[in-house]
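Many introductory courses stop at the sequence. We go one step further.
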Amino acid sequence: MKCDARRPCAGCIRSHAYALAHAPQGIDVPQEPDCTYDEGAEIPEDVETPEDREKAGILENKIKKLETLLRILDWQEDPSRGCSSSGSDSWDWVTPNNHVSPDTNPSSLSEFDERMGSSSNLPNLPVLKDTWPPNIPPLDILRHLAEACFTNHAQTRRLLHAPTFMASLLLDPSDPRFPVLPLLHAVCANGSRYMANSVTAHFLRRSQDDYGDRSFSEEQAMFARSTMENCHTGENLLQYLQASIMLGWYHWFCAKWMDVHVLSGSTLRMAVSLGLNLCKPYPIITPSPVKYVPPFLPPAESFTEEEIRRNVFWMAYAMERLYGCGNSWAMSLSDEEISQMLPVTLADFEAGLPISQNGRQWSHDADLFSRHPEDHTDPFILYIKSVLLLSRVKNMCLRSRFQYYPDLIRNTIAEDPRLNAEFHAIESMVDTFRDTLPAQYKRPIEGEVVDPLLYSVVCTPYIAKIFLHEQFAAIGKHSCLSAFQCITSARAILDLLHSVTTTEYELPRIGLFPVLAWFTAGRVITRFLKAAQRENANDQIDTLQAEITFVLSTIKKLGACIPLARRYALMLDDHLQSMCGEDIAAKVRRMADEKEAAGESCVPPRDMDAPEMQETYQGEAYLAIRLSRPQVGYFPK
């Protein structure tokens, strides 16, 4: 039926009349027909339900994750992408084949300074946006500082997931996935150690703040600490922990003993409060009156996030343990309170592919130092094992000090600590770890390539031997095994130092623990030099002086870049002067300056059967006990 285009139309009139005539009882029918001819349909407004909002949130999160994945893929294909506001003025980070890789030897710092140091090579830096955080360098400088950390500091690549972190820098600062301020400041403070001064100075000139006499790295470390204290709201706790670890590295680099001691202790306790010292399937067992405290961190959303948490704990643990090797202070966490798996290899970590727990080792495994599964071993995993080994050595030394020292003072000591089962077990662990290292990991130096993590691993058994035996060494007694262990371990460390100085490798990249190892070797050799002087062993005095000169000159040269090395050089010089007198110290000091000026780094030949001279009463007392019972324990007949 056709419509007659009236209002109301004929069709609506007939329909209304029919409705009036046949309406059921109790149903009201309007008196006038409701004609809708030629009217647009009213579209009702959408009513947003909670379910709709939840679905929208899920879709938004998926979009954000896809955007992050795209940024990660872009960074993996071209790490320099997005580093500069101008493609023609982009900065080239100097690495072999322009690729950032921890397994290759980066080009020298001097070459980087030459390429980056000229102000004419600086790009046109972008103007800071309103949303860009204050006191943070522009994005191009920030990315280069981060890349400097990943390239030159091996531990950074385990503390932070490099592709994810570099991609997060491209986000808007208001995005919740943008790194927190303390972490950015800590990255800047550490990264500036490896960059040309003119690069950071350029930012200082652009900044409106008054930096005074402080350097860029000092300012960034100060900002990291202040923002960590002021911005801590209970969110992003893992990032605050990462920032705290990096700030501890910086304090250790600057030889700020008390700062790094306090910070490393608080960092490790924070890691424990986040439950990072434990790993499933080991539950937290509490007494019945104590209520279970839920974890502060939610469950990890991915394999990568889970491994980052594990790496963060091991980095906090390693910082406190390695720093603690240079002093006799008590440690913050007992090894018995750790039930954590060792990390995965770097390739598996950066790939983000889930790895089964089957075959992975735990910190409490009985064969931790004797078994190194091929699929679950790399330099960083061995590095963590070496830290665990040093921790057990120091714990035993601290306990033996409190157990035997009072009897030694009263001259009533009845037993040589080296004869008990614990000492024998610890020393056996040290020997086993050194002997069972896989062949491909026993050489930290291959040609001109140096692996800083492996270098620390190889140094660890010798440092552990010195820590175990130095307090018992009766220098001067041919039958004293402790004196022999000290001198052979110290000279093994000198051999490793000689090997690295004969390459083109830049020593500032070697890390901080090797500097402690070199200083310890120099301190031990100084004791033998004093004993040789007392016995007028002129044939040994020249050799020992040459060895100390080599150590002192190397550490002093490194002190131009690392404040910690400069402090150790002063300590070794003071120790030499107090032990051997001003004349010997002045002679060694003069020889060290001459070698540093001439660029020499060779170690003179030496006699490994050098006579050992008596020095300490403590070593004499223990030696008398051992000689009275030569067949007890592990000592040879």
